[in-house]
Write a structure and sequence with these properties.
By secondary structure, the chain is mainly alpha-helical. It has 8 helices and 2 strands. The chain has a two-stranded antiparallel sheet.
Length: 232
C-alpha cells in the first residue's frame, strides 16, 4: 500500500471490521483500534521526513475541471498528521477502561474519525478535502450520540447543526475559490484583493473555526462534553 494512504485506509478498514464484529467477541474492537491507529502513527512519522512529497491520480474531468485524488505532505501536514494519529491511539487506549454502550460501534466511529481527519490533513484537492471534512462531522455526530440518555442525543444534534453550518460556509468558500481560480488544486495561487477571493477566504476560515470550536461558534463543545462518552 502506498505510504500516503496508510493513515487513511488502515483506520478506515479497521473501523469497518470493528463495526461488523459481533458484540460477544470481547477485546477485538479495542485491539483493532489500537493496532490501526498505531500503524497510522508509524506511517505519519515516516511521512514527516517526506515534506513536499505528493501523490496524485486523475479521477475525472468535467467541462475542463480536472478532479484528482491528490495528497501532499505539506510542512503543516507533516507537523499535524503525527499528532492526529497519536491522539487517536491515545483515545483508543484511554477508552478501554470506560463503560461505553456499544464498544464495537464506538471503536468503528473512532477509527473512521482518525481516517477522515488524516484525509483532511493530507488532501491536496478541495473536493477531496470537503469529502473528508464532512465525514469528520458525521463521525463526531455518531460518537457524541453514543452517550447515555437524552443529553447525548441533544448534544449530537447541536453539534451536527453547528458543524453543518460551518461545512456549508466551507462549501461556499470552495465554490468561490473555484470560480476565482478555475481549479480545485490547493497548490494554485489566488490573486488577492478581489471581492470573490476575499469572500472565499472568509467563508473557508469560518468553516475551519466552526470545526475547531472557536468563538463564537464554540457552544457545541461544552454541550457535547456533557452528553458524549467521556473519552470523546
Amino acid at each position: 500500500m502506498n505510504l500516503f494512504w496508510v493513515p487513511i485506509v488502515v483506520p478506515a478498514v479497521g473501523g469497518l471490521i470493528a463495526f461488523v464484529l459481533p458484540r460477544k467477541v470481547k477485546g477485538a474492537s479495542e485491539a483493532l483500534g489500537l493496532l490501526s491507529t498505531a500503524w497510522a502513527f508509524w506511517a505519519a512519522l515516516k511521512l514527516f521526513g517526506m515534506k513536499g512529497a505528493s501523490w496524485d491520480a486523475p479521477w475525472l474531468s468535467l467541462d475542463g475541471l480536472g478532479l484528482s485524488l491528490s495528497l501532499k505532505v505539506s510542512p503543516a501536514a507533516a507537523f499535524i498528521l503525527p499528532f492526529v494519529c497519536l491522539f487517536g491511539f491515545l483515545v483508543a487506549l484511554y477508552s478501554i477502561k470506560f463503560r461505553i454502550e456499544s464498544r464495537t460501534r464506538y471503536y468503528a466511529f473512532l477509527q473512521w474519525t482518525v481516517a477522515s481527519s488524516a484525509g483532511v490533513v493530507l488532501a491536496n484537492n478541495l473536493l477531496l478535502l470537503l469529502i473528508f471534512w464532512e465525514t469528520v462531522t458525521v463521525m463526531l455526530f455518531f460518537l457524541v450520540n453514543l452517550g447515555v440518555g437524552n443529553a447525548a442525543a441533544e448534544a449530537a444534534r447541536k453539534a451536527f447543526v453547528m458543524l453543518g453550518f460551518g461545512d456549508c460556509t466551507l462549501l461556499l468558500g470552495v465554490l468561490l475559490f473555484w470560480l476565482s481560480s478555475g481549479t480545485l488544486s490547493m497548490d494554485s495561487r489566488l490573486t488577492t484583493g478581489g471581492v470573490v477571493t476575499s469572500s472565499a477566504f472568509v467563508l473557508i476560515m469560518i468553516g475551519a473555526l466552526a470545526k475547531a470550536g472557536a468563538m463564537p461558534v464554540h457552544s457545541w463543545i461544552p454541550t457535547a462534553a456533557e452528553g458524549a462518552p467521556t473519552p470523546v
